[in-house]
Design goal:
heterodimer; A: alpha/beta; four-stranded antiparallel sheet; 12 helices; 34% helix; B: alpha/beta; eight-stranded mixed sheet; globular
């Protein structure tokens, strides 16, 4: 890649230790995110897919410093994000925002949505006085397809799709360059989902935004993302351009994910490609974390962890079986 | 003879001003051994329809219609007769398996509970049968899992347990309401494959309630599309996906991320939003969002009638074609 990435993460690792309970001892630490490298270019939408517990959300939050990693670096537009402190960090926050899956959970139920959207404008001193703030809020509501008169209403008066529009208005209020969209349409019905996806694509094009688009719907990711990163158990197991990933998925996990996605063509699907469940976070398997479920596992897979290797232009995969075919 | 025949079912919930007509005149029937999908967006009345079959719509009320199951009108049964039917002849699984399981009761005891109540089994007999049921739903190591508590199980495993409970008394009908919505796709594929196997093995009739047309395409024989409390189209899965006749069904299908060319980033959308169920629009409930509406659509509500390719559709557009 020629240009410098807008977001450049290297060697990110974050471990959590499950809390103990009354009858449960504190569990051993596990790596929710394990030595992850990731680039997001300016005006690029990168899809991040994987099952629950794969570390997608943790990774997204690390990139915008809502979670501090244990190891690794994040550069944002050349600035060392992890070195920023206090006022400086706060000032930089307007550049990177997040849209959550459940906008209801992320909006204060007792705050009028005009205030919720206007709050970051006031905090970052981007408006001068109430009248200017209200004017800017009205513009933002209009931009995300809501009636500006709705500014005086409360979150419970909005439908799921409308609340997601509010969440998006809040995220773009301060003119960010990068947005982590964490399953932004997963809770919505297909027709509403289509409206919100189109809005996100419109905004990306109009404002030149970059997204890390975290999702579990591979069909959706294929449509809107330029590049896709697949995570399993905290690791990146494959990364490629969207076109190539769907045309030629190489990692057995990526192939299984694609095979498990329901098709809209009637007919009985083949038997499920994957048996078993993702590994328990407290009992990581030896070797490749995917090997207990992998239909193609060989001896190497049980013994050592595969490295993420480059197998083509922008295509990386962490799999001993794939590596063997290259030798 | 159909196993289940629902006619003109009406379920209302009370609200501040007008009653919410969650289900407003829905009729369909299930043939033995088929999987019938009810599909639609949240609030369309699909879940209320499923719950009405068990007479579990509180705080709402079933205000009209007939539900004939195995020859008996369920709306005429006493509460005691209904209790004997639930779990025994009609089983149900929900989206939230975790919420439906008792967190302080071992899995085996929960699976065996219905057997003790409906079949009068002893604790020991029920436990042995519970282990067999857990084996039936392909839960790994069923003896050990029978002694586990719900929190020790993953989401997919809990949904298998819910299936074991629903099937414990060999029901004729299984109502599966968004059974895989909360699960990852690889686990969803496993649970749906299990459902298909169980259906064939146990000659189950399944009412599959879902918002996901992909799940419908791969698992159902027939499908009913609901919009704002009404059934707007019904057909075999092949006919419906091949040639959807109702403009709403067409809109739903086009909005699927897997439909249309993959290089087009934007998805075709339906304008507007679903109507307020307490104040549905006059005429066809879909007409304000319909790009093909014409004179009669805002005046009278279209009834379901025969559809080309088999099935039924409630749309004047189709009637005009039939007449003209």
């Amino acid at each position: 890649m020629s240009a410098d990435p807008l977001v450049r993460a290297r060697g990110l690792t974050k471990s959590f230790r499950p809390r103990g309970g009354l009858f449960r001892p504190r569990g051993p630490a596990f790596n929710a995110v394990d030595r992850v490298d990731l680039d997001v270019m300016a005006s690029e939408i990168v899809g991040l897919v994987g099952e629950s517990g794969s570390g997608k959300s943790t990774l997204g939050r690390i990139l915008i410093r809502l979670i501090e990693p244990d190891e690794g670096t994040v550069h944002f537009g050349g600035t060392d994000l992890l070195a920023l402190q206090g006022e400086e960090l706060r000032r930089n926050r307007r550049d990177f925002q997040i849209v959550f899956q459940d906008p209801y959970g992320s909006l204060n139920p007792r705050m009028k949505i005009g205030d919720a959207i206007g709050e970051p404008l006031t905090i970052h001193r981007l408006v001068d006085g109430r009248a200017q703030r209200d004017e800017r809020v009205a513009e933002l509501l209009d931009r995300v397809g809501l009636d500006p008169a709705m500014a005086t209403r409360y979150p419970h008066e909005f439908s799921g799709g409308q609340r997601q529009r509010v969440g998006i208005a809040r995220a773009i209020a301060c003119g960010p360059r990068f947005i982590v969209a964490d399953e932004p349409v997963s809770a919505l019905d297909a027709p509403v989902q289509a409206q919100i996806v189109n809005l996100l694509v419109d905004l990306q094009e109009q404002l030149g935004l970059s997204y890390l688009f975290i999702a579990h719907d591979l069909q959706l990711v294929r449509r809107i993302c330029q590049r896709v990163v697949v995570m399993y158990f905290g690791r990146v197991v494959e990364e490629a351009s969207a076109g190539e990933l769907y045309r030629e998925p190489r990692h057995p996990y990526t192939r299984a994910l694609l095979a498990a996605t329901p098709s809209i063509v009637p007919g009985r699907p083949a038997a499920p490609a994957l048996s078993g469940e993702p590994p328990s976070q407290t009992a990581a398997p030896e070797g490749c974390p995917f090997h207990p479920r992998c239909p193609e596992a060989i001896d190497d897979c049980r013994r050592r962890d595969p490295a993420l290797i480059r197998i083509g232009e922008g295509h990386r995969v962490a799999c001993h079986v794939v590596e063997k075919t290259l030798e | 003879m159909p196993l289940l025949e629902v006619s003109d079912l009406r379920v209302h919930y009370s609200a501040a001003d007008a009653p919410v007509r969650a289900v407003d005149g829905v009729s369909f029937s299930l043939q033995p051994g088929e999987t019938y999908a009810l599909v639609g967006e949240s609030g369309c009345g699909k879940t209320a329809t499923g719950l009405a079959l068990l007479r579990l719509v509180e705080p709402g009320r079933i205000v009209g219609g007939r539900i004939v199951f195995e020859g008996r009108d369920l709306l005429g049964l006493s509460e005691e007769e209904m209790r004997r039917l639930r779990g025994a002849r009609i089983g149900m699984v929900f989206q939230e398996a975790a919420a439906a399981l008792n967190p302080v009761m071992r899995i085996g005891a929960q699976v065996g509970e219905a057997l003790r109540i409906h079949r009068g089994m002893s604790r020991k007999e029920a436990h042995a049968e519970a282990v067999e049921l857990l084996r039936l739903v392909a839960l790994a190591d069923p003896e050990r899992q029978a002694r586990a508590y719900p929190h020790e199980l993953s989401g997919g495993m809990k949904q298998r347990v819910m299936l074991a409970i629903a099937l414990s008394c060999s029901p004729a009908l299984l109502i599966a309401d968004e059974p895989t919505t909360a699960l990852d796709v690889t686990i969803q594929a496993q649970i749906l494959a299990l459902l298909r196997e169980l259906r064939d093995e146990l000659s189950l009739t399944i009412l599959l309630i879902t918002h996901d047309l992909g799940v419908v395409a791969e698992n159902a024989d027939r499908v009913g599309v609901m919009y704002a409390g009404r059934l707007v189209e019904e057909a075999s899965v092949d006919a419906l996906f091949d040639k959807p006749e109702h403009p709403y069904t067409r809109g739903l299908l086009r909005a699927m991320p897997g439909a249309g060319p993959a290089d087009e980033r934007r998805l075709p959308t339906l304008p507007g939003t679903v109507p307020d169920p307490a104040h549905p629009p006059a005429g066809c409930r879909f007409h304000p969002r319909c790009s093909e509406r014409f004179e009669p659509c805002d005046a009278d509500e279209p009834e379901l009638s025969g559809r080309p390719g088999g099935g039924r559709v409630a749309c004047y557009l189709h009637r005009r074609e039939a007449v003209g």
